[in-house]
UniProtKB/TrEMBL annotation:
The lineage of its organism: Bacteria, Pseudomonadati, Pseudomonadota, Alphaproteobacteria, Rhodospirillales. GO terms for cellular component: cytosol. Keywords: DNA-binding, Transcription, Transcription regulation. The keyword tRNA processing does not apply. It comes from Thalassospira lohafexi. This is LysR family transcriptional regulator.
Amino acid sequence: MDIKQLRSFVHIAELGSLSRAAERLNLSQPALSRQLNLLEEALDTKLLERTGRGVKLTEAGQMLAERARVILGDLARLEADLSARRSQVTGHVHVGVPPSAGIVITGALVEALRDRFPDLNISIAEDLTGDVQEGLLSGRLDIGILHDGMISRSLHAEPLWREDLYLISHPSRVGEQETDIAFEDVLSLPLIMPTNKHGLRAKMQEAAFRAGRPLTPVVEADALRVLVDLVHRDLGHTVLPRSSLVMELSTGRLRARRIVSPELSRKVMLSWLHDRPLSTGGKAVIDTLRELAGTMPMAAEL
């Protein structure tokens, strides 16, 4: 039994599918199956049962998955502590951010890192929350910013700040004195929303379910600029934090009404793999993000 086999098994256990785990790990399915067979042989026990929908953990498999997460987490912390003994902050760190958070923090993050750690190289990838999470799980990204919700158990996640959500509309659709709108009324409007891959859609669907109402967007779009352009063309309304649209709102190009009854908000989360040790550069990026989170002018306190 080795660490690579344990890591692979944890991903299989989480996804319930050899093919999906192989895709996440950038392995062929036969190669992943060989790792699983070697692990079962080493432990002399069956860990998985195949079903029509994928694989299911045996009782021994459930025990191993729980213990493996602890072992991998301890190993990652040990490797990170040893790495931290190196004082010079160098290397290359890959960071993934969703568009709304990227607008708020990317510029300040890069500016601070270039000032403090000139020998550190950083790559910023802007993508949907689902894609950022997959990038972390596959190892393509070192650090990611996500939104609270369906975050993998393989990821560490800590809150940075809270974003209140607003209905974004064409100015002609909003009265001069209107600042709030009830969620029930939001659901009755033609909505332009991201697809199910996006954390914001999941947040809206959850709120609609609790209200006993369907969420039926008239248009789906996964790019922030497309959502904004469609609303500007008066083709519908969308839901976003105000921080995503500082320029559009300040110039009156769009109008924002706070969603109430109930109020809607989401947490912006800092995330990385439990079982992947952070380099000294990665720790520097995380410390900088934590520091900057407290200075976000349009972000609400947790």
